[in-house]
Amino acid sequence: MIDSRISGFYRMTVDERLDELLTRGVIDAETAKRLKNSKGLLSPDVADRMVENVIGVFGLPLAVAPNFLVNGKDYVVPMVTEEPSVVAAVSAAAIVVRNSGGFTTTSTEPVTIGQIHLYGLADEQAAITRLAAAEAELLAQANELQPGLVARGGGAIGLEIRRLQLADGRNTLALHLLVDTRDAMGANLVNTMCEGIASRVAELGGGKAVLKILSNLADRSMISASARIPVDRLGADGARLRDAIVLANEIALVDPYRATTHNKGIMNGMDAVAIATGNDWRALEAGAHAYAARDGAYRSLTNWSASGNGDLLGVLRLPVRMGVVGGALKANPAAVIGLCIAGARSSQELGELVTAVGLAQNFAALRALATTGIQRGHMRLHARSVAMSAGVPRRLQDRVVRSMIESGDIKDRKAKQLAAEFESSNRGIAGKPLGHGSASGKIILLGEHAVVYGRPALALPLPEAISAAVYDNVAGTRLKIPDWNFEQEVLHDLPQDAAEGAMALLQIILRRLGLESRKFLIDVQARIPPAAGLGSSAALAVAMIRALDNAYSLGMNDQAVNELAFECETFAHGTPSGIDNTVAVFGKTMVFRKKGPKRISELALRRLPPLVVAWSGTRGNTREQVEAVRHRWLQDKATYERIFDEIGHVSVEGAGALAKGDYARLGSLMNIAHGLLNALQVSTPLIEEMVDIARSSGAAGAKLTGAGGGGSIVALCPGNSGAVSRALAAAGFEVISGFATTGAGDGQR
Fold this sequence. Notes:
The protein is of the alpha+beta class. It is 46% helix and 19% strand.
């Protein structure tokens, strides 16, 4: 059995994702090869035999949604959709339901309705009597037309007769031929049967058979999907969120305008799976919407309620007919791949999976509406889509996306304008660089603030978070950090205490290294945001020091670099512990102490911890946070010393758990540490929201990282990094991608 929980899937390249699916047995080697080589697509020659007037084939993204647990079985769900956030939202919802026990589904037999409409009846009641008496004859005649279906256990199984009245009062009869189509969608099978028995039906009824075709309202083939989510799985404010979801559903039950959008969201998920598996999504849509209006008023297809013990209960019930066999499916290689990924062995199983996806999509939409709103989750994905469609080079996409969101102008024109500006800002760098330098960012896994007061802290590096290159520049000395929208000329005659931020750090470095008379350009590439709790100032200082050391052959060793970087940190943050600059220089996982003989204890890891790091989008001020904690410590030293002691104990125990790969214990300790940091009053409502999203999406532990007051969180996510990443991204937060935490390694130069 496959495991649909795939760690870090969101961050992988396309080839890496295919390799991961191959390793887990979701796809076979041939399928992986075909997808990598773009050979899993419909060819124009085959398309030309499927429909008329073919001039090519049309592509849509084929994605997968992991994390689904349906009736105790794991599924990776194939989805074809062009709409941003659909796959991310449904995957995030699936992990919440998975952690609550998974989806439960029920279904009836795969029965399709064929219709023969009789018109011009001489005696309607007599016609009904004769048709009912001839049921066995008509079923036998229909089954003679499809012996293969009968051999597979299917075939015509019953008749129904309905009286209808036209608008002008004339009467007609609708004869329903109920056909068990087994694992085929069955449209052609049923149509052949209807046409084959129509003349005998007309003869028995004494009228004319005017219509002979299946119905897409397959309400003899009903499927239900349900989920029960304990209120504590909905987050810290779970009861309020539960009630908001229930209220939203109640509105959709009485307002057809809202119900239409509500049900469209359900179909976002169901249609995407139907398309990916080669099924008739138009029939699925038609049947769903007809069923939603079955009592004469268009209503929500789902029902969300609160159970007696406070759990959130969700049910989606609708007619669903899917197929896993048939000529049309075999003809389309992409559909074959989709069915392979889905792993459904029967039409009923596939229908149940599709219905579970619809319920997950509805939960995701209602949760977003009840919390951050739909737009916040859509914004980043929409901005990335706009950047790609505008032809923004990949190397500039992150900067363009971030700038569009900050400006609130997410348009093709804006994307092109920003790309041109960023390209322009990079021009004017002539010749080869004189020297390079890079440095790690840092994740404090355990021990923030207490480390300033002598307790141990556990830290991991973010390798090559910042890199710098030095170029000749006869016009003067400049510092450029395009990723932070920063560029400024160095004014050597400016007093040190008059400079701020990155420029202040560079001035300190130039004075200590005796390079004030040199003229050069330092071009910095930053893969982490500033003031985000990820050691950006220390990494910037170390990268610039190393670049200058390399450019001018100063012969600095790591210890000398570290000492100068600590001086920069002291200027930037007041009373730093030294952990940021130490991790930036040495790039190793370590237990760090401010003083003592075992100041740095390197930690060799057997494997990399599955961490997700996300930025709130708000910047924290380390100096302010450190000074605020110090002020409170001075007011109540005894209490704060006890808190610092406890944080120190947690850090030491956490280091042991990390070394052993005991992620359950490490996650628990991270949660405890976050509570202690909350006691120090350094968290924020936005940080709390991020921590709650990470935990409710399956993280073993989540906490703020760094000084607090904004900044970032770190979440430990064994087996579900992708789900946690998607949930945070869907809520509008920036997941710091492209890093692999490491347990060993040299300082980057």
